[in-house]
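Subject: Sanity check before I submit

Could someone independently write out the structure tokens for this chain? I want to compare against mine line by line before I put it in a report. The sequence has 270 residues.
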Amino acid sequence: MSPRVPAPATPARVVKLGGRLLDDPAALAGLAAAIAGLPGRVVVVHGGGDAIGELQGRLGLAVEKRDGLRVTTAGALDVVTMVLAGRINTRVVAALHAAKVDALGLSGVDRGLLDCRRVIHPAGDLGFVGEVAAVRVSVLAACMAEHVVPVVAPLGVDAGGQVYNVNADDAAAAIARALGVELDLVSDVGGVVVDGAVVTRLAAPEAERLIAAGVIHGGMVPKVRAALGAIASGVPRARIVDPQGLVAGAGTVFAGGPASPDPDAMEIST
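---
Independent answer below. Compare away.
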């Protein structure tokens, strides 16, 4: 594997796509148009959990999750690979092409982009689920230098050639961390909602309190965890946002640092 190289000096961001947006052609077209209007270089990472579960069901394969992570047997890994590197990746690239974005689809296996190791989880064996150990930044930097948007399916590979299923939020956070750029987690939810309003800024201690209290729950928890992990590891900014807020600058922005009584530690949109 070649040594890492610095990312281009032009401001850049990683945009992770997920949720029902990937299954709605009109929503995906609007999202592609929004990405086309973003300044600077962009790396797109996508999920595809709903489509994976649907195909597993059609094939008669059991769907099992532990702490939000999909248990990935050898059979499930075949499905994950088909859906992520095939159906969903092609769908996202096609939508970007229609929006006049020069996009290139690839998975984390291609050129060893995402170097992975097997996840050891306290809840038990997850099968072929991996965590990112290193990102081959030169692959992404070469694309961005040519004004090409890489569209990354969250699969990884280890030194022995074993392919792994990687949580898409975690893969996006790892890429943002490696590039030293901002991270936008885009879904059909406009951000963290408290008392019916989107929190516009959220510090780590307050986010942890809201998770413990059950205010942040369900599928929002792994997104918040990914954003907090990215901030803690040096990503300059992480945000949860919907397609409309991606360009408008809305959503929930995460900040690091110790707990503070400062009321600005949590700001609510009006």
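---
OP: Matches mine. For the report I'm noting this point. The chain is about 35% helix and 25% strand.
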